[in-house]
Design brief:
alpha/beta; Rossmann fold; eight-stranded mixed sheet; single chain; 2 domains; 13 helices
């Protein structure tokens, strides 16, 4: 099949959806790959590297997209100039964010193209091979700790020096998904004392398995999910004692839980740092602002929108590996085919035949229209 690789157009985006190594694999599989000129520049992957891997490199967008085939990118096809080139023969793949921003896929659906959103990968064993979200969360969790370490007034490890003993920093990680667990592991490797919080008992065990101390959540009414007030009461002393807080608690397609209030930030020591990975969905910290540094009482609160771009080579390679696996799932005798009986592919299918077909995305659109 024909596979087009688009250059990312998002501000600060340095990743690329397919690396030269991945292109070589796909060409060996018998596919034709066309790369937009400069697509890999942000990750240090030159056009010549793609040509050496067997790809065609084109500057004209019409030549890149072509009349049919797969169109791949990190963040979707971009503006009207690109979407206008799409038609029923195209299968568009990317992180389309259709549940949180459902209006963004309406124009794409109108072209008749088939849209597959990597945000919607099912939570199943078979889907792990294409789980871009987990791959990018791994990078973000690592980067969050590195960012915090560079902004904190304290070094992370315990040091015994001629100038005396340097105590280790204390790091609190909220949310033990992929990003949170990577943050726990990275902070521990740097020598910090790490605590982790999650409302799921299995997640607490994972925190402990990485060398962190788990914080037991409060018990909700009738044994259910605890309310925000009870969670804040439990977390307040741990936040006050932390040198670094990493907010990594997110719920796919929904607003992130508010775990750190402004009053809690005010109890932290000057020089402490909060990194809110959930800022794009409202944030785990009430003080955080998207892509801004907020200083409150000497505490720096960071709300980075896309930390994965900080390690563009690693992130691009992980994304590309997942994408190669997805291409192989879609390949039906050299043509892309979304098998409706395949729970992985069907679970990511957002639009086809001019219609938005994913029920969750359709519900999100209906709610937006009702509130308009």
């Amino acid at each position: 099949m024909r596979i087009a690789v688009l250059r990312e157009r998002g501000d600060g985006e340095t990743r690329v959806s397919l690396t030269p190594e991945a292109v070589g694999t796909l060409v060996s599989d018998g596919h034709e790959v066309v790369v937009e000129a400069g697509a890999g520049d942000g990750a240090g992957m030159a056009d010549g590297d793609y040509r050496s891997a067997g790809a065609l490199v084109e500057s004209d967008m019409g030549s890149v997209v072509g009349d049919a085939g797969l169109v791949t990118s990190i963040g979707g096809p971009g503006g009207p100039s690109t979407i206008g080139l799409l038609g029923p023969g195209h299968v568009v793949i990317g992180l389309l964010d259709p549940v949180w921003r459902p209006e963004g896929v309406t124009g794409l659906a109108a072209t008749g193209a088939t849209a597959i959103s990597l945000d919607l990968v099912p939570r199943s064993t078979r889907a792990q091979a294409v789980d871009v979200l987990s791959s990018m969360a791994t990078v973000a969790g690592f980067q969050a700790v590195v960012l915090a370490a560079t902004r904190s007034y304290r070094m992370f490890p315990l040091l015994m020096t001629a100038a005396g003993t340097v105590p280790p920093a204390r790091v609190l990680v909220l949310g033990a998904g992929v990003a949170g667990l990577q943050a726990v592991a990275t902070a521990r490797r740097l020598g910090a004392i790490v605590e982790g919080f999650d409302i799921r008992s299995e997640a607490l065990e994972q925190i402990r398995s990485l060398g962190g101390r788990s914080i037991d959540p409060p018990v909700g009414a009738d044994g259910g999910v605890p309310d925000a007030v009870r969670i804040h009461e439990v977390l307040a002393p741990h936040v006050a004692d932390a040198d670094v807080v990493i907010g990594a608690a997110q719920i796919p397609g929904r607003q992130s839980p508010l775990l750190v209030t402004e009053a809690m930030v005010e109890t932290m020591r000057p020089g402490s740092v909060v990194v809110d990975l959930a800022v794009q969905r409202g944030g785990n910290c009430s003080v955080s602002r998207l892509d801004e540094d907020v200083v409150l009482g000497g505490v720096t609160v960071l709300g980075p929108s896309e930390l994965a771009t900080g390690t563009a080579v690693t992130a691009s390679r992980m994304f590309a590996t997942n994408l190669v696996n997805l291409v192989r799932m879609l390949d039906r005798d050299g043509e892309p085919f979304v098998d409706p009986d395949d729970e992985v592919l069907a679970g990511m299918l957002v639009a086809t035949g001019g219609e938005i077909v994913h029920p969750v995305v359709r519900d999100a659109l209906s709610r937006r229209e009702a509130n308009a």
